[in-house]
Design goal:
mainly alpha, two-stranded parallel ribbon, about 45% helix
């Protein structure tokens, strides 16, 4: 995997290095509802208006996973608003390449959590959501 992409992912995932990350105003009232779905292998999609707290909620869920002893390396956050990632918006395999890279690097882990923010910036997903 390209070193620039790895560096961008490392910036977006400060918990990998035990660094502090902002979790904003508490929105965890939704957490018990969402937690039921986190044990399934299904994709959970959070929809909402702009600036309604979706990204904040993702960070709070990540923090809750860490507090509940999920391995930090098992939590992968990808903000597709990153210019490097936007350049890959035509590449249907981009996200799979990220998951493959980290699952290979962390073979000892049985479960991964993949959080994707700003998914609408990827043309591949835009097609699926609009049709």
């Amino acid at each position: 995997m390209d070193e620039k992409i790895i560096t961008a992912l490392e910036r977006q995932n400060p918990w990998w290095f035990n660094k502090h990350f902002e979790t904003g105003i508490d929105r965890l009232a939704y957490y018990p509802y969402l937690e039921r779905y986190m044990k399934s292998k299904e994709i959970l999609l959070l929809l909402g208006t702009r600036r309604s707290g979706k990204s904040t909620l993702l960070n709070q869920i990540i923090n809750k996973l860490i507090l509940n002893d999920a391995p930090r390396e098992s939590i992968i956050f990808v903000n597709l608003d990153e210019p490097l990632f936007m350049a890959e918006s035509h590449n249907a395999n981009f996200l799979m390449d990220i998951v493959d890279y980290f699952s290979t690097k962390n073979r000892q882990l049985k479960k991964f959590y993949l959080f994707i923010d700003e998914v609408q910036t990827v043309r591949i997903f835009y097609f699926f959501f609009k049709h």
